[in-house]
Amino acid sequence: MESKKGPFLQRFTVYDYLQLLIIMVCILLAVLPHKADAQVAVKEYTTLEEALKEPEKVIRLNLQNQHLDHIEEIAKFKNLQYLNLRNTHLSSVPQEITTLENLKVLDIGDNEIALLPKNFDALKNLTELYLDKEKNLQLEEDLEILSRMKSLRILHLENNGISTLPKNISKLQKIEALYLGDNKLQTIPVEIKELKKLKFLDVHHNPIIPTDVIKRNYGGLKINF
After folding, report:
1. In this structure, what CATH number is given to the domain that contains residue 206?
2. Distances (CA, A) of 207 to 159, 183, 192
3. How many distinct structural domains can be found in the chain?
4. Which residues form the Disease resistance R13L4/SHOC-2-like LRR domain (predicted)?
5. Which of 32, 39, 100, 171 would disulfide-bridge 147, Cβ 3.0–4.6 Å?
């Protein structure tokens, strides 16, 4: 529906959800082995002890909610594509993670991380990053690092107590889906308009008035309030 002031943002239609589903399916396919004859689901390892028995075979490693004494061993998983370290009491990102060049999805949410390593962009194939429930994030500095990541397409920053977004959010020029739900944002910064590849923005459970966003005209961007 068009108005004289520009396109009117509507709540999601079935078509909108299909578009989002396509994005998520593409990410899922990226994590799976690229073999035409792959018929068996990829095994997900859930303990370091088990995974270290055959490190070259580990594609998915889920260590969430664990206390990790030998996190440096992660560097041995050279073929790792999915890593979940959610709620593992991390106060920083282990340097060993930056050696995982095949990593595509990394979940380090619900920890106590403030700064990402300066060489975090060594994860050249990382497509999706979870940094939600990280109240200590130094967001401006971390966004500078993330802006150098050529493959990053999906970023999760939910439930981080964010009241304003740094202006350098505009540097995330490769981002297609940005999750900012459960924060304290009162408006969507104009810098978001500069993210030319952004297709989906989630700002649910923020004190944002949808009509204020409508007046700014974000074009074809799908926004979930």
Report:
1. 3.80.10.10
2. 13, 8, 17
3. 1
4. 63-137
5. 171
